[in-house]
Amino acid sequence: MVLRSATKKAVAESPKRLANLIDLANVPSTLREVVGQSQISRLGCFIRVWSYIKEQNLQDAVDMNIVNCDDKLKRILLGKDQIKLAELPTLIKLHFPKQPK
């Protein structure tokens, strides 16, 4: 896999930030229903949730930046009926424990 120079620079400048994205963590049972694993990284979780959204065709037909949540997604995304795609990483991050500094 070839990393872009901007990505290489970001990794070199903040290795802790990258570690927070790729370290495995235990996930709650509500998130396990969508993800299908008991341990996953934050980045892996985001990718699984995104693929679930695509598989279930949950993107809004008019505005592709909006996700219409089904029951499973509502349980993990604070019970919201709709979310913007920009909110998704923040809402997923809430399920992962804070890393000590």
TrEMBL record:
PROSITE patterns recorded: SWIB_MDM2
PANTHER family: SWI/SNF-RELATED MATRIX-ASSOCIATED ACTIN-DEPENDENT REGULATOR OF CHROMATIN SUBFAMILY D (PTHR13844)
Taxonomic superkingdom: Eukaryota
CDD domains tied to this protein: SWIB-MDM2_like (cd10567)
Ranges of residues in domain DM2: 20-98
InterPro entries: SWIB_domain (IPR019835), SWIB_MDM2_dom_sf (IPR036885), SWIB_MDM2_domain (IPR003121)
Secretion signal span: none
Protein's UniProt name: DM2 domain-containing protein
